Every structure is written in structure tokens, then in C-alpha cells.
Amino acid sequence: MKILVLGSKGQLGQCLNHQLAMTEHDVVYTSRGQIDIADFEVTKAQILKISPDIVINATAYTAVDKAEEEEQAADRINHLAVANISSICNQLDCWLIHVSTDYVFDGNSQVPYKEDNPTNPQGVYGDSKLKGEAAIEASGCKYLIIRTAWVYSEYGNNFLKTMLRLGADRDELSIVGDQVGCPTYAQDIAMTLVSVLPLLDLKGSSSGIYHYCGDEPCSWYDFARAIFLEAEIQGLKTPSYVKSIATADYPTPAMRPAYSVLDCSKMEECFDVTRSNWGDGIRVAIDRLQG
Fold it and tell me: Is 103 a catalytic site residue?
């Protein structure tokens, strides 16, 4: 199959490069330098020229707080550009695999969110991602929308790398302890997407929204403690004291969901995949950062 990966220099894009290299698929990797999805006409011309069987959209505007000030920029990338890409995929009759977010929910649930639970994003970022999902569904193309959460890896900017950097510089850290989610190793997302490719049927009957995330819920504080425990084992400097604080003690421009655990049973049953073991992911990511 001919696969086009949009956003190949991002965190997930680099993991897809790693995982797809172990397959025999014909893969075209593009970053903003080759296809800037914010330029709709150029994007259309380029994708039509490549004529892929599957487009994996690993691009996104992910600056959650900055999106509150840059609403137009977030909407252009996460919504309007996605609408354009899905329209092109419909024209080509090719699949679109698109990665979305737990931030489409408000975080007021006390049980894991299923795909068909009511959405209610609390900020610009989540709203723009939800509009992107709706645009894909309305386009008529064959699609998989994969909602994930708390993504980290050895690449890009993410919580794990931030903790390692801060932990090397400071003896004390305060981490939010009352927001609960499921960390997800980006290599596991990439591996799962690659494993799904042969299962996509020509008629698009498996089109839909699916959840995929880490295997155990935790707080950001718990996540940080796990990162520092592994970092210490691998000989890195870690803070001597890590304190759990409330969301109210760490105000941010954008609201974060207090509870954003995703129910992954639909994805597991339909595609026979297993959720991300984020504890193992921490170990592998730190090991690769060291190497």
C-alpha cells in the first residue's frame, strides 16, 4: 500500500517513521516543508499527485494554552485543514487516519469515556479538534479517527521530556495531582496504527471513531513520580522532593479535563490491539534518550 504521512517531523510522525520502516509499505513522509496543510490549494495538488491509498494525518496545532490566544491558527490547522484533507481523501477514495484528543470531553465523568459519549470541549484546542472530527465525518471519506491522550515519547516536546529537564535542574517540583488520565507512548500509537493498516477494508465499513490510550489511569503527579523513578534507575539526576498540588494552585490559560480516561474496548475488540503500557514506555523512551 502507498501511505502518505503528514507531519513526519512531529512526535507521532517520527514514531510512525520508526514503525513503518519495519514494513514493506510504500511510504511518503512529508513535513511542513513539503506539504503545509495550512495552504489548502498546495495541499490538494500535492496529495492528488502522490495519490496514496492511505493518508495518516499526524499534524496538529497542539499548544493548548497558546490556542486560547491564537484561535484562528488552531482552527485553521485542527479544523479547516482537516476538512480539506478529508475532502481530498474522498476524491481519491483513499483512507484517512486522523489522530484526535481526549480534550473533546469536559472531564466531568467518573467512568472512562466511550466514543459515543457526549462531547463538550472546555477550550479552543479541544473545540478545534472536535470540529476537525465533524468535518471528517461529513466529508464522505473512509476514515479512522483515533482519540488518544497524554502522549509522550523520546521525540518532540512532551511531559516526560519536560520532567527530565526540570528534574535535572531543580531539587523540588510541584505537579498537579487532581487531573487523571492515561499516558500513552507515541511508539505504541504508531505501532497500533501500523497493525491496523492491513485490516482496513475497501468499502470503509470500519470507518468511525476509536479510543486508544495507556493501560492504567494516573494523575500527572503519579506520572511524574514514575518518570523520576525510572530516571533514577538509569542514573539520571532527579528532584529530591516532588509535591502534589491542586489544579487551582497552578492556573493555566486553558482548562484541562479533571478526568479524561478513555475506554479503549471498541478499538481492542475491532482491531485486536492492546493498550499502551506506559510504564514500559517510560523505560524505553528514557533509554533511547540516553542512547
Answer: no
C-alpha cell at position 256? 484541562
- What CA–CA distance (Å, rounded) separates 5 from 28? 6
For the chain, which residues make up each domain, given as ranges? 2-156+183-215+262-277
Q: One of 61, 103, 125, 143 is an active-site residue; which one? A: 125
pTM above 0.85, yes or no: yes
CATH for 2-156+183-215+262-277, among 3.40.50.920, 2.60.120.260, 3.30.190.20, 3.40.50.720?
A: 3.40.50.720
Q: At which residue does the C-alpha cell 535542574 appear? A: 169
Mean pLDDT by 10 residues, the chain (291 residues): 96 97 96 95 97 97 96 98 98 97 97 97 97 98 97 96 96 97 98 94 82 97 98 96 95 94 96 96 97 81
Which 8-state DSSP code applies to residue 113? B
